[in-house]
Amino acid sequence: MSKETPCVAVCMIDPKTRLCFGCGRTLPEIARWHAMESAERLALTALLPARMNQVGLAPIAESPKRT
Q: Which one of 33, 41, 47, 64 has the minimum C-beta count within 10 Å?
């Protein structure tokens, strides 16, 4: 994944919070991601850890790159 995306390739939406288990974004945020300006993406990315913590979702670490 690009360094500019919070995606960790765990694309499952929690039915209770409607947040992705992997990155913490909502479906509308995921859908708009590539249309967002870089500053908007960076601002949203900065909010995701606290958002996930607030609803009790543990962030999933990005899997190591294969060589």
A: 64
Distance CA 43, CA 47 (A): 7
- Where are the chain's structural domains? 1-58
Distance between CA 65 and CA 7 in Å, rounded?
Answer: 14
Q: How many CA atoms lie within 13 A of 20 on its CB side?
A: 20
- Residue linked to tokens 């913590």: 53
Q: pLDDT-derived band of residue 2, with 50, 70 and 90 as boundaries?
A: low
pTM of the predicted structure, to 2 decimals: 0.81
**What's the pLDDT at 58?**
80
